[in-house]
Amino acid sequence: MESMGLLRQDLVVRDLEASSDQGAIEKLAMFLHEKGIVKESYINAIMEREKVFSTGLPTGSIGVAIPHTDVEHVNEAAVAIGILKEPVPFTVMASEDDKVDVKVMFMLAVKEPHAQIELLQTLMGVLSDPELLNTISEAASNREVYDAITSVL
Amino acid sequence: MKKILVACGTGICTSTMAAKKLETQLDSRGLKGQFSISQCRVSELEFKANDFDVIICTSNASGSFDTPIIQGLAYLTGVNMAKTTDQVVEKLGL
Q1: What is the ipTM of this complex?
Q2: Contacts of B71 in chain A (CB under 8 A)
Q3: Which CATH number applies to A2-151?
Q4: Is the separation of the CB atoms in A14 and A83 below 8 Å?
């Protein structure tokens, strides 16, 4: 539980409604700003960065995206989880124009990446666990999302 | 000592994730001590690429250099990871 300090129940947003990747990122970034986790500049920075360095990831089950941006826009390290009501297409990371329908976004507010290697590794564990991703995408409460992730640590 | 360069958009986030996983994979194949891993931004590849034996990218890479590039998404999702590691080992000649 202690190692999950960056993952907070109150940073899970379910039934997120958006019609595009940019819309989805904007909503979750604004939410992080309202929570004081990131600076206002984070919102624009993360949207612009997605256009240049897309973050969609086809996993073994549902599509996932891990939008993030430079550390100077971040006040406090955290991860927000956005579960989309209906999946929206994101461009696949490192591809020219391949698309993946994304159901779950893990939005990273990274401050000192090397100090947060534990968190990044936890996230990788989640990304490579198809069953866990399904559980997260269908969770009926924030608690359920949090418990599902902490149960595999 | 073979030199591996892992690159992503900012040189700190997905490249850190991929580098850690790649290291574990290579170690588990008994290659510990035979390689080193560095990280950079994809925008720096043009200046750095030629000093390395292979480049692993989690973002689009461009620029003119001869070092082979392997796409590193497998190290983030676990999908096709063994196959990607086969390619890395082959390019390194280990």
Answers
A1: 0.84
A2: 94
A3: 3.40.930.10
A4: yes
